[in-house]
Amino acid sequence: MQFDLRKFIVSGTKPYTAEFQCDLSAKDFAGARIEQPVTARFEAVPDGEEIRMTLRANALVHGECARCLDPVEREETVQAEWTVRERDLDDPDFDLPLNEKGHLDVDEWLCQEFMFQIPTVLLCSADCPGLCPRCGKKMAECTCPPAEAEAEPADARLAILKSLLN
User: Fold this and answer.
1) Residue 93 has what pLDDT?
2) Strands 71-85 and 50-64
3) Across residues 92-108, what is the average pLDDT?
4) For residue 133, is it within any domain?
5) How confident is the model at residue 54 (pLDDT cuts 50, 70, 90)?
6) Domain contains 129
7) How far from 10 is each of 24, 49, 86, 93, 103, CA to CA, in Å?
8) How far apart are CA 127 and CA 144, in angstroms?
9) Residue 69 domain-assigned?
């Protein structure tokens, strides 16, 4: 969705509200995916010389647990607010995706907000034990003996170091 922000700042007198669909399935969010289209709500409200903009959306995020590699699904919510003045549009460091004509790319803004919202490390649960480093099975299914039960170190030449730990 494109929003003519420059024109709205100059001539907007009434609030503008839009509900739109955004397809983010082609985007990669640090290994996570948003497979279904997202319904987002955008609002721009004139407030004197400023425009207050809000962007809200919910999405079902799919990924893998960083510890056990099980599939993970979780809902993420974006709630972003931004205040803009006319002079901000000419600032080269303006953070919102704006083209040279002053049109705001609301889809790209939504994508950026989800990029910040979705954790880079997804977990199936906070106490996920992960995978066994020896056999590669999930720790709950692993039958390997505990590391402390091994009498010999991996290399016999390092046995002297083990005695220093005791």
Assistant:
1) 85
2) antiparallel
3) 89
4) no
5) very high
6) no
7) 31, 9, 8, 21, 13
8) 20
9) yes
Q: Residue 107 belongs to what domain range?
A: 2-117
Tokens 């992960």 locate to 130
149: which DSSP letter? G
* Amino acid type, 102: G
| CA atoms within 13 Å, Cβ hemisphere of 103 | 8
pTM above 0.70, yes or no: yes
Query: For the chain, what percent of residues have pLDDT higher than 70?
Result: 95
Mean pLDDT of 21-41: 93
Strands (DSSP E) contained in 6-64 are: 16-22, 38-47, 50-64
Q: Which residues contact 98 (CB under 8 A, 6 or more apart)?
A: 5, 89, 104, 105
The amino acid sitting at 97 is P
Domain membership of residue 41 (yes or no) is: yes
Neighbours of 36 (CB within 10 A): 13
Q: Map tokens 């906070």 to a residue.
A: 126
- Write the CB contacts of 120 (distance below 8 Å, at least 6 apart in sequence): 30, 31
Torsion of CA 90, 95, 98, 103, to 10 degrees: -90
Cβ atoms of 22 and 58 within 8 Å: the answer is no
